[in-house]
Amino acid sequence: MAIKALEDIPVMGGLDDSPRGRVLRAAAHLFRHQGYNRTTVRDLARVVGIQSGSLFHHFSSKEDILCAVMEEAIRYNFARMKAAMAEASSPRLQLRALIRGELESILGPTGEAMAVLVYEWNALTPERQLQVLALRDEYEAAWLQVLTQLQQQGIIQHPPFFWRRLLAGAIAWTGNWYRPEKSMTLDDLTDMVLDMALAGRSLDL
């Protein structure tokens, strides 16, 4: 069904209702469901309810909008994860906070933007990719720090880099099959992934 107005689109986590936020909300949805190349500036303006030229009061180009969608999703989710990690009293609980945060980023209110980050990556110029990667590197460093601490404690045996790749793949794939049900909540799913990472030792948290 064609999107006729912004009110038809789910709210994206981390965005306010400012003109800029409304454009990014529409862009995340349209880029995800129509594709970046097939979405025109006119499409974005129509959904937001403004003139096409008004978009460029906030963004210099369509690629600028794409880059902003990706950056906002990373910033918002990383801020939530850091807050959750700050409340965790051990590396194991920090790992759980990271897992839950990443699951929520994919399955929750930034799901469309996170999918755009993956599937429209090659639409960015190399310069823009480096810009987004700078944020992504900080995010990944938090994962590697926690996994390294767990390795030093003897809780995981294999290199943290490989564990991160395995966990990233498993978590990303949940977007293809997971549907919220009473029999499998997001916390249940988090504990399953944690149990996989800690080889059953998550019960000793």
Model description:
The chain is an all-alpha fold and 205 residues long. The chain has two domains: 6-57, Homeodomain-like (Arc Repressor Mutant, subunit A), CATH 1.10.10; 73-199, Tetracycline Repressor, domain 2 (Orthogonal Bundle). Helices cover 64% and strands 0% of the residues. The chain contains eight helices and no strands. It has helices at 19-33, 41-48, 62-86, 91-107, 111-119, 126-152, 160-177, 186-197. The radius of gyration is 18 Å and the shape is elongated. The chain starts with 18 loop residues before the first helix and ends in an 8-residue tail after the last helix.
Largest sheet: none
Q: Extract low-pLDDT stretches.
A: none
Percentage of helical residues? 55-70%
Radius of gyration: 18 Å
Q: Averaged pLDDT, please?
A: 91
Q: Any idea what the CATH superfamily of the largest domain is called? A: Tetracycline Repressor, domain 2
* CATH fold assignment of the largest domain: Tetracycline Repressor, domain 2
How many structural domains in the coordinates?
2
- Sequence of secondary-structure elements: HHHHHHHH
The count of DSSP E runs of length 2 or more, i.e. the number of strands, is 0
Name the descriptors.
Arc Repressor Mutant, subunit A, 205 residues, mainly alpha, Tetracycline Repressor, domain 2, 2 domains
Write the layout of secondary structure elements.
Layout: H1 19-33, H2 41-48, H3 62-86, H4 91-107, H5 111-119, H6 126-152, H7 160-177, H8 186-197
Provide a quick synopsis of the model:
It is built from eight helices and no strands.
